[in-house]
Amino acid sequence: MSFEKFLFYVFAGILVWSAMMVITRKNPVHSVLFLVLAFFNSAGLWMLAEAEFLAIALVLVYVGAVMVLFLFVVMMLDINLAELRAGFVKSAPVAILVALLMGVQMVLVVGADRFGLSSMPAPEPKSADYSNTEELGLALFTQHLYAFEIAAVILLVGIIAAISLTMRRRPDNKYQDPGKQVVVKAKDRLRIVKMEAESTQ
Amino acid sequence: MEYNLTTLQPALPEIFLLSAACLILVIDLFLDKRTRLLTYGLSLAAILGTIAVAIGVSNSETQILFDGAYIRDPVADVVKIGLLVVTLFALIYAKDYLIQQDIYRGEYFTLVLFATLGMLVMASANSFLTVYLGLELLALSMYSLVPFKRDSEAGSEAGMKYFVLGALASGMLLYGISMLYGATGALSFTDVSAAINSGQADEALLVFGLVFIVIGVAFKFGAVPFHMWVPDVYHGAPTAVVLMLSSAPKIAAFALAIRLLVDGMSGLAAQWQDMLMILAVLSMGLGNLVAIAQTNIKRMFAYSTISHVGFIFLGLLAANDKGYAAALFYSVVYALTAVGGFGVLAMLSRHGFDAENIDDLKGLNDRSPWLAGMMMLILFSMAGVPPTVGFFAKLFVLEAVISVDMVWLAGVAVFFSIIGAYYYLRAVKVMYFDKPESDQPLIVSFDSQAAISVNGMAILLLGIFPAALFGVCQAAFG
User: Which residues in chain A are contacts of B114 at CB distance < 8 A?
Assistant: First the structure.
């Protein structure tokens, strides 16, 4: 077994294990952390496939930005797990049966004889001065320009959707207006009252 | 390819609509409550402009752009113009409803415009990548429109349900696409179809991928057994959103099916014919039977949509040009009818009151004979009563099915249509023979009134002269 193959099995093994942990952990924070581990391992797999740019982008974008955000949200939400798991035991037998059937079918169809190295040979290794990033950029801005543009529009719709769903003016909310805070004068806040001194007897 | 105005000319409708939507998004930012009606006017102008551009670039040739990602052919032209016209009606009906329910915000119009753009992209997609991105653009806009009335609990629930199930269906579709990509090594439908027809690709793998793609398509159509979301979403979403959800996307879903199944996988027609047959029979059966039990008219229309989807599948599964033309005709006619039906519901609603029960139609004839007449035409068209256009839509589909020797299937379709006629006619009876429950006068603005009149008259006139539209559909599949 070559070293590369060994690395592949290490990454793939940890990836599958951590993916299982994501969906079985009781604590959502643990799930998110296992997902981060899964992302790191798939980045390793991509690195082995000589897709360096994608591997680094996966770590930077998903682990660095998206998962951190995820972690924040999960920690802020008060998720009642008992409620979420209420129907689990009841529907588990059916779910397991369907999953098993699907799994067997998938293994039969998507097995080594169809996606093995004989039918899908590994690409030729490129020379050291080959730039993955440049190739990707060229493909994005020439061959896949149309798809690239639509993807940009989808992101724009995502922004509009997020804002339209969450932004609302609530009249009963308490909030600070820095502009008004700056121009405030002492007499607006403080009332000096003169009182006659009283005897203390 | 080179990018300049001449080479990009076939894609002008999409370019125009995208520019207009972005412009409206920015302009809306500077409007206050009193001038916000401008957003509505500009949106109508954008749709009208796109229709004009789409007519301008239409011709009988087939043009492929962007390295095989984009296709402009007569089918795309008909689908685009059809869904744009329906969207125009939906926007007009939606305006008053939005104002009355205090949810008149600019985002409704921009999201509708972006959803329309997604549908245009789907209509002229020539690769798996484009078709998927167009679908997501449409779906994402719709997911955020369903819970548009934020105080409504039913709306939020419907939005959540739609989002989760829609994401699942997208996952299925993507998985199927990845299988086909693995088997054929191509994304563009031209290459995929060539690879399948050459017989080099692995048959089992192709069929495995096809199953997932059909599931994805069936979900987007709302066909049984992937229909669970339809009644709940129609029920929970504001009528203004259902107007958009129930009409034009059905034409776009037809385009999705044509692009994926016919352009991409005509070599697997024998396989998907059987799958569509099961979906069609189940949809017509369950849709029509369950619709009878509904008292909420939005739910009733939802189940009726499911049964109409069965009919569209009937045309598709004939797997010849005649069948595709009939299915296209059916989906355009259905969208036009559905937008009118929900339009009338929007007009019956007032501030703080949503017309959504069949009882809300009671005595409509006494309150507004013209509106009742239009609603009657719409319901007759859905039931397939001549001389409305719905009759011919059903007739052409049945003709196509019989022409490929599936008479039993036509028999099943007729049987369930007769059952379906019951609940449409019940609604007509309620409008004409029951006493009105409220004596509040109906106030319908001029533009809605004009639109519903044009809509109703179109249903009647197209029924008297069906060749006008059917000829166009036939020519598209020439």
Answer: 153, 156-157, 160
Q: Cβ of B179 under 8 Å from any chain A Cβ?
A: yes
Of B346, B344, B413, the residue nearest B384 (C-alpha): B413
CA dihedral B19, B22, B27, B33 (to 10 degrees): 130
Report which residue type is found at A105.
Q
Plot region of A177 (φ>0 → left; ψ -120 to 50 → alpha; else → beta): beta
Give me the amino acid identity at B283.
Answer: S
The answer to whether B358 and B350 have CB atoms below 8 angstroms apart is: no
Buried b (16+ CB within 10 A) or exposed e, B390-416: bbbbbebbbbbbeeeebeebbebbeeb
Nearest-CA neighbor of B335 among B301, B366, B361, B362? B301
What residues of chain B score a pLDDT lower than 50? none
Nearest Cβ partner for B140 among A109, A144, A161 = A161
**Tens-place pLDDT, residues A62-91:** 888 888 888 888 888 777 666 666 777 788
Name which of B66, B107, B179 is nearest A146 (Cβ-Cβ).
B66
Nearest CA in chain B to A111: B205
Residues 12-51 of B with CB under 8 A from A: 18, 22, 25
Residues 6+ positions from B110 with CB-CB distance below 8 Å: A160, B21, B24, B25, B28
Partner residue opposite B144 with nearest CB, options A109, A144, A164? A164
Taking the model in full, what pTM does it have? 0.90
The answer to whether the CB of A115 falls within 8 A of the CB of B182 is yes
A175 phi and psi angles, rounded to 5 deg:
-145, 160
Instruction: List the one residue out of A111, A132, A151 whose CA is nearest residue A51.
Output: A132
